[in-house]
Amino acid sequence: ILxxxxxxxxxxxxxxxxxxxxxxxxxxxCWATGCDRSFHLPCAQHGECVTQFFGLYRSFCWEHCPxxxxxxxxxxxxxxxxxxxxxxxxxSYKTMVCPACQDAHFHRHCIQRLxxxxxxxxxxxxxxxxxxxxxxxxxxxxxxxxxxxxxxxxQAVGLLDQRHSHCDASxxxxxxxxxxxxxxxxxxxxxxxxxxxxxxxxHCSSLENSTSSWECEGC
Length: 219
Known about the structure:
Layout: H1 3-13, E1 28-29, E2 38-39, E3 50-51, E4 59-60, E5 95-97, E6 105-107, H2 108-118, H3 131-139, H4 154-157, E7 189-191, E8 199-201
Antiparallel strand pairs: 1-2, 3-4, 5-6, 7-8
């Protein structure tokens, strides 16, 4: 994206009110055709909006967000299989179910925490299905980390856990080369906040000194 395009997007967003908090500067607009609802990313959960962190990175308001086709099996006093607190007896924005076993019920915020904690080993906590389960969670707006699980030690991860140490920008502008990195300033090396497998100098990706995180194109 060119700098002028970024400026245009920012200028347009400054004129859009968030339908959740009513403040201006809403940068996300519902993907549904004909819907002009816009919202801030931090307001998404409060407004029951869904943002998909894959593919086209589509976002939807509460009215047009995807809903699970599978229905949770009705039962008395359904509990979340993660926190063991009570959940609704039907699927909703806050209550989700595994599409594979259709028996695992969980809160949205609980499965989101598990996704970030489990990383590449994210799967249904009950039936251990991964392929169907992960795709369903991504579609429903759960962000899945590409990192090794949090419970894996540094020794177990081995070389895969070593810190990435060079700039992967298409054009590296650092006069000292891609391997050079400083503790701060334009030649500080930032790693992708999702996969940590790619990095960039701040200056090579036009990142301000105040920017604390960055994501590679693949993430």
